[in-house]
Specification:
- The structure is a single chain.
- By secondary structure, the protein is mainly alpha-helical.
- It is built from 12 helices and 2 strands, in the order H-H-H-H-H-H-H-E-E-H-H-H-H-H.
- Helix 5 packs across helix 6 (73-86), helix 6 (73-86) runs parallel beside helix 9 and helix 8 (118-128) packs antiparallel against helix 9 (135-147).
- It is globular.
- The chain starts with a helix and ends with a helix.
């Protein structure tokens, strides 16, 4: 990937009509949100990240997060908040992987994770039982993943899923529950630092 494209992905398009502008505009809103958020970590914009961790304050940083999808402004602002919570003190960004159901399955310790961890099992039950987006439980889940040194969910996927939370046909809560309880055929205990390196490498491959 060229330096120009990387800059466009991180901070937005460089100039009207450029190839990087077109590539940026072709991205889904959730992908643009993630590109912007990860750039805040890479560029050490700690002041902006600190602002995002104050959900009851509407700063320009919160407003900018909502700009990526004005129709889902609350979702995008809150996902930015969760991202900032996870990356408190981080020097490298993690794009995450999987749904929140997959991520909750990674919560626990060497004694057991996911369904084998009572706390993780209670947490997913509370999340999927909620008719409204369970922001408090999601915050708890992200904080647990951080404390367990486990990778977060894909931030883009999380924004997309929460944008459809009330859509019965999308069945987001059901899909998360299935992801949590379905046995894995491969190890799912990679640390967040391992996954961060993997995702950054993939994200910079042409």
């Amino acid at each position: 990937m060229s330096t120009e494209t990387e800059t466009a992905d991180n901070d937005g398009p460089l100039s009207p009509g450029s190839a990087s502008t077109q590539a940026w505009e072709e991205k889904a809103p959730s992908e643009r949100l993630t590109a912007w958020l990860t750039a805040l970590v890479r560029n050490r914009e700690y002041g902006h990240l600190a602002e995002l961790r104050r959900p009851h304050m509407r700063t320009n940083t919160h407003i900018r997060a909502g700009w990526f999808n004005p129709e889902q402004r609350e979702v995008y602002e809150q996902v930015a908040f969760l991202f900032a919570i996870y990356h408190r003190g981080a020097s490298k960004p993690s794009y995450g992987y999987g749904t929140m159901g997959d991520a909750t399955r990674r919560i626990g310790s060497s004694a057991g994770r996911g369904p084998d961890d009572p706390g993780a099992a209670r947490l997913i039950d509370r999340i999927v039982a909620s008719r409204r987006i369970p922001w408090r439980h999601l915050q708890h889940g992200v904080a647990r993943l951080r404390s367990c040194d486990q990778a977060p969910p894909s931030w883009s996927q999380l924004a997309d899923d929460l944008s459809q939370w009330s859509d019965r046909q999308a069945r987001i809560a059901y899909r998360w529950a299935v992801a949590f309880h379905t046995p894995r055929t491969r190890p799912s205990t990679a640390t967040k630092s391992d996954r961060t390196a993997d995702t950054i490498k993939k994200g910079t491959t042409t």
